[in-house]
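[Automated response] Your request has been received and processed.

Submitted sequence:
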Amino acid sequence: MAARADEIRLGLLARLNLYQRERFPLARTATLVAIFSAASVSASAHLAGRAAPDWHAYAAAFVVTLFFFFQLRVLDEIKDGDDDRLYRPERPIPRGLVTLRLIVGLGLSTVPLAIAACVAIDVRLLLPLALAWGWMGLMAFEFFVPAWLKARPFIYMVSHMLVMPAIDFTLTGFEWVPGGGAPAALALFLALSFANGCVLEIGRKLWAPANERPGVETYSGLLGAARAGAVWIGCICAALALLIAVGFATGAPLITGAIGVLAATASIATGLRYRRDPTPERQAKVDTAAGLWVFACYAAAGFAPFVQKWIAG
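Generated structure:
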């Protein structure tokens, strides 16, 4: 599928705007990134019993998180390039809207900016930043065993979703690196990040049978809609249990748990409806529910303790 004639005539900025709308919607991504990064910084302080850092740490964490997510998109464009040309020619790069070289160049341009944001807070943040980038680099090369991984979809998912706690280790570091050390319960929050990554990853690959496409791997295609939907619901339940544990660790179990139970109930109901009748409309609702769950989950983990302290006076 080639770019349309009207797209070819567009200037570079207009084509990049189309690219971001299709592959990296900035408004929606920035909203999720703001919650994710702020919750990570705040949760680290709550878990350690320290006061929240000033706004500079939050701003730097937001910038680095946004760059992380864009870099992940760039790596996807690289590793999925062959499959996109064969099975998803409507995407921006295979159809010729923008070039892979341009998108990779934009991704590389964020590297020194992320480094600068870390150094502005504490130069020691470069170590967790390098660890996260190292894992992302291994992902880009499919850990040098691409055929083996692709033959084992769930090992593939686990290997790729471990990037979420790696990223969150960096983000929480904006509080604990200059603040005096990582909190003892940080592992709970990192496990929650992993579970939420699985919720997002599986949720976006629960498709309606009518939408399944040759060459495009989905969990619904691999397991069937009913079984794949059950796995997704299981990930929601695991994330809820971890969220409640984080709530106890931050001193706000009731508020955290209440938000989590309400959000999980709505998400699970969406998953059950998809399992019963996996229509395209319900496919879209599962994808939306996954994002809303993660949004509510991080909001509860990061901000419920503030509410708890306000109520307590």
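Summary generated for your ticket: The two ends are 61 Å apart (CA to CA). The chain has two domains: 1-144+162-177, 185-313.
If you did not submit this request, please reply to this message.
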